[in-house]
């Protein structure tokens, strides 16, 4: 990936950290902007500087409607808080930040709260002792990020784009550019001066975030884990799968809901032909030009090895008998060599 065109910056761009939050901009369903409150308070000047309440831009009509801004915080599945935008703003200081946006592939400015500050305020400092953060997104995307990553790098809970009316991005998907809603919240990372985060592309950048849970991975995803006696390669593949794949795909019913179940016939030992799977992971569009699945991060160090490990993990999982009897249904198991069976497909757009 090329360096960001703006050149060096001293920090993540918290230059406007003393900006006062403005009252939420109300947008009627017809797209008419009503902000009498703002004007009355004389805060109109602050609006372009700060951005506004998360809104949803409907790609079809171009109209904006107000978003449900609630964000649920859980700890091991138990509800700790349910905040709307105003409540979140009371927990942490709103800031304008600049990051290299991995979907638009350019530097973008967001209005955001420091995620660590929000977590401090919601959970107390004890969140730092937890293992992972699980994000729940409106569209079924369900990524996890190790807590350690948050302690070493700076993550933000973005809620607006100061420069634009709507909180959305232009994303390359299925060979075309689509407008994608980001609201109510988008987790972004300071990466203009952080080569590690920059190299990891969109890992840990969930949008449409509606929930955050502090989890223990073994307790939360018991059926996704390989058996204890699996090889080191399989375990490495499991780690890689959790970073790159489980946010979209379930294995044995556990994981994201954007792509299909990847262990459709547990215990059968039947699975995707490894050679086909390797090519699919590296370049899905080669097999299906209109696919919504992105290729594995092209900038990943040791990419070929990571692909092999993921293939080893999925192959191993297909041999494991279903645990508890309620694993994913076993229809449409693809035979070796012929590529995947026709499983569930997400609709186009
Ligand atoms: C951003 C979401 C997303 C990510 C990340 C993702 N996939 Fe997918 N994947 C999809 C979608 C959507 C489909 C269905 C694609 C289609 O029908 O064209 C799919 C399809 C597949 C299929 C074919 C399933 C079938 O039976 O048709 C396999 C195998 C697969 N993905 C494996 C992986 C692996 C392994 C990874 C991690 C390296 C991964 N995917 C990462 C969204 C994703």
Mind explaining what this structure looks like?
There is one protein chain. With 349 residues, the protein is α+β, with helices and mostly antiparallel strands. The protein has two domains: 14-218, Sulfite Oxidase, Chain A, domain 2 (Alpha-Beta Complex); 221-319, Cupredoxins -  blue copper proteins (Immunoglobulin-like, Sandwich), CATH 2.60.40.420. It has helices at 36-41, 46-50, 85-91, 115-123, 147-152, 195-199, 217-220, 232-244, 274-282, 284-287, 303-319; strands spanning 26-27, 33-34, 55-57, 64-66, 71-75, 78-83, 94-101, 106-114, 132-137, 144-146, 155-160, 168-173, 176-181, 186-189, 209-215, 250-251, 254-255. The strands form six sheets. A five-stranded mixed β-sheet has the order 6-5-15-9-10. Strands 7-8-11-14 form a four-stranded antiparallel β-sheet. Strands 1-2 form a two-stranded antiparallel ribbon. Strand 9 and strand 10 form a beta hairpin. The protein starts with 25 loop residues before the first strand and ends in a 30-residue tail after the last helix. Residues 1-61 and 324-349 have low confidence and may be disordered. The structure holds heme C (HEC). Heme C binds next to helix 9.
What is the H/E string? EEHHEEEEHEEHEEHEEEEHEHHEEHHH
CATH architecture of the largest domain: Alpha-Beta Complex
CATH topology of the largest domain: Sulfite Oxidase, Chain A, domain 2
User: Which compounds are bound in this model?
Assistant: heme C
Helix count, DSSP H or I runs of 4 or more residues: 11
Give the domain tally: 2
Strand content: 15-25%
Uncertain residue segments: 1-61, 324-349
End-to-end CA span:
28 Å
**What is the averaged pLDDT score?**
78
Taken from the alpha-carbon principal axes, the silhouette is: globular
The radius of gyration computed from the alpha-carbon positions, rounded to a whole number of angstroms, is 21 Å
- The helix content is 10-25%
Report strand order across the widest sheet.
Answer: 6-5-15-9-10
State the total count of DSSP E strands.
17
What's the quaternary structure here? single chain
User: Can you identify the CATH class of the largest domain?
Assistant: Alpha Beta
Q: Largest sheet, described in full?
A: 5 strands, mixed
């Amino acid at each position: 990936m090329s360096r960001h065109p703006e050149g060096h910056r001293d920090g993540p761009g918290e230059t406007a950290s003393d900006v006062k939050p403005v009252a939420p901009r109300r947008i009627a369903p017809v797209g008419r902007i009503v902000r009498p409150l703002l004007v009355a308070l004389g805060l109109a000047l602050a609006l372009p500087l700060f951005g506004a309440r998360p809104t949803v831009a409907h790609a079809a009509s171009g109209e904006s409607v107000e978003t449900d801004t609630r964000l649920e915080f859980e700890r091991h599945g138990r509800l700790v808080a349910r905040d709307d935008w105003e409540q979140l703003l009371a927990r942490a200081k709103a800031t304008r930040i600049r990051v290299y946006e991995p979907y638009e592939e350019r530097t973008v400015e967001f209005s955001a709260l420091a995620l660590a500050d929000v977590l401090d305020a919601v959970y107390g400092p004890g969140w730092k002792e937890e293992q992972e953060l699980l994000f729940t997104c409106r569209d079924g995307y369900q990524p996890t990020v190790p807590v350690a990553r948050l302690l070493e790098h700076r993550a933000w809970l973005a809620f607006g784009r100061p420069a634009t009316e709507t909180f959305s991005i232009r994303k390359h998907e299925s060979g075309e550019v689509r407008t994608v809603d980001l609201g109510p919240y988008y987790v972004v990372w300071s990466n203009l001066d952080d080569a590690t985060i920059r190299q990891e592309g969109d890992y840990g950048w969930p949008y449409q975030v509606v929930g955050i849970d502090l989890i223990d991975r073994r307790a939360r995803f018991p059926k996704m884990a390989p058996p204890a006696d699996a090889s080191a390669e399989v375990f490495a593949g499991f780690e890689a799968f959790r970073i790159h794949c489980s946010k979209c795909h379930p294995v044995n019913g556990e994981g994201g809901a954007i792509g299909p179940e990847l262990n459709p016939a547990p215990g059968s030992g039947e699975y995707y032909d490894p050679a086909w799977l390797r090519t699919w992971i590296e370049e899905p569009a080669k097999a299906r030009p209109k696919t919504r699945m992105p290729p594995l991060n092209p900038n990943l160090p040791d990419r070929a090895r990571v692909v092999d490990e993921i293939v080893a993990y999925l192959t191993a999982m297909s041999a494991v008998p279903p645990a508890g009897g309620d694993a994913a249904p076993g229809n449409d198991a693809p035979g070796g060599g012929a590529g995947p069976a026709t499983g569930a497909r997400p609709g186009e757009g």
